[in-house]
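ping. complex inputs:
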Amino acid sequence: MKIGELARRAEISAHTIRYYERIGLLPRADRDGGGRRDYDASTLVWLEFLGRLKTTGMPIRDMLRYAAMRAAGPATERERHDLLVAHRDRVRAHVAALQSCLAVLDTKITGYASNLTNEAKDDDTLPNQLRKPLR
Amino acid sequence: MKIGELARRAEISAHTIRYYERIGLLPRADRDGGGRRDYDASTLVWLEFLGRLKTTGMPIRDMLRYAAMRAAGPATERERHDLLVAHRDRVRAHVAALQSCLAVLDTKITGYASNLTNEAKDDDTLPNQLRKPLR
DNA sequence: CTACGAGTTTGAGCGCACTCTAAGTCAAGA
DNA sequence: TCTTGACTTAGAGTGCGCTCAAACTCGTAG
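pong. complex structure:
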């Protein structure tokens, strides 16, 4: 698989894939006769996992630590386990914070909505086509 | 309230508060005799709300739009409502994505954990003090 | 044969959200 | 009176994660 296809499948740019290789997040890719990167499916799986880490807000430097441990072999499994557990805890805390923010947003939105509804009510001496839509 | 106290209470730095004022996220603060910023409680409330927007990933340029509408008065209430609803939808989608990532993390962690447990089992011909701790 | 599109490299540039520096002012306590 | 520490300004610097530029090389379709 060429870099373009991998980029399309992983939904990131080829630029980003080269950048990841440069910083060590991806191992140096095998090259074809013309020096072009050639990937197999396992790279896609790894990129997808990196995408999960990224979505959950893991900084690249931590992904690098994880990638280095993976490259170092099974002796680092406990360390990798612990890193993921610590990360999961942070993500859970973040989700909880988001949910609390969502509650605040809901309150605020409800406040605006009831204001708007009342304005619409105040409107009811106007002919229909001039009233504000209720949404 | 001086900037230092506001900073402590809002849990952001005084630098950041001045920066927010500079870019228009906070209105220009009243000054005391010596030209120093003097705040009342409403600024703290506004900063706390901005913190919610920030936690939920709203970029500063959108906060600026919201702040500008607020400053423009009640005529912008529907627009503000709509902005918050759109934001809430994005946040909900993000929470869903995070939860899906958490499921992947859980699977990965369980995998590592069972590996580690099995290694501990494989250990059981060793004298106790050489076994890997089970945690 | 040639044109095209996809790839290669190194290194520079960008947008975001701060974060800090330098040089100065001011009020209150020892 | 002196010192301390919190404040003031404009502007420069930082860290992150890309993103793009320039100049180049290939392989293949027409």
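Residues 2-4, 14, 18, 31, 34-37 of chain A lie near DNA strand C (CB under 10 Å from a C1').
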